[in-house]
């Protein structure tokens, strides 16, 4: 029984899997944060641009 416990404590195969899961979760969370920030800024900018284009006066020239 002691040998089985020693083998279990020395085996590191599962630890590598846990490390990759934690790293992948961190990368996914960081990506979601970046996309959320960029989306908010892009929405504000496009709304401002739309308001400016709506308020713009474009003279019409008629050629006869």
Topology:
Elements: H1 2-10, H2 13-55
Short description:
The protein is mainly α. The protein contains two helices and no strands. The chain is rod-shaped, with a radius of gyration of 29 Å.
Overview features:
64 residues; mainly alpha; 2 helices; 0% strand
Would you give an account of this structure?
By secondary structure, the chain is mainly alpha-helical. It has two helices and no strands. It has helices spanning 2-10, 13-55. The longest helix is centred in the middle third of the chain and has 43 residues, at 13-55. The mean pLDDT is 87.
Regions with pLDDT < 50 over 5+ consecutive residues?
Answer: none
Instruction: State the shape.
Output: rod-shaped
What is the residue-mean pLDDT, rounded to a whole number?
87
Q: From the helix content, strand content and strand pairing, which structural class follows?
A: mainly alpha
Q: Output the radius of gyration.
A: 29 Å
Report the helical percentage.
Answer: over 70%
What amount of the residues lies in strands? under 5%
What letter string, H or E per element, gives the SSE order?
A: HH
Helix tally equals 2
Number of strand elements: 0
Distance between the termini: 102 Å
Major sheet size, sense and barrel closure: none
What is the multimeric organization of the chains shown?
single chain
């Amino acid at each position: 029984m002691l040998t089985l416990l020693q083998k279990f404590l020395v085996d590191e195969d599962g630890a590598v899997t846990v490390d990759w899961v934690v790293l992948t979760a961190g990368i996914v969370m960081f990506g979601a944060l970046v996309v959320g920030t960029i989306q908010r800024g892009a929405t504000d900018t496009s709304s401002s641009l739309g308001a400016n284009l709506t308020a713009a006066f474009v003279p019409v020239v008629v050629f006869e």
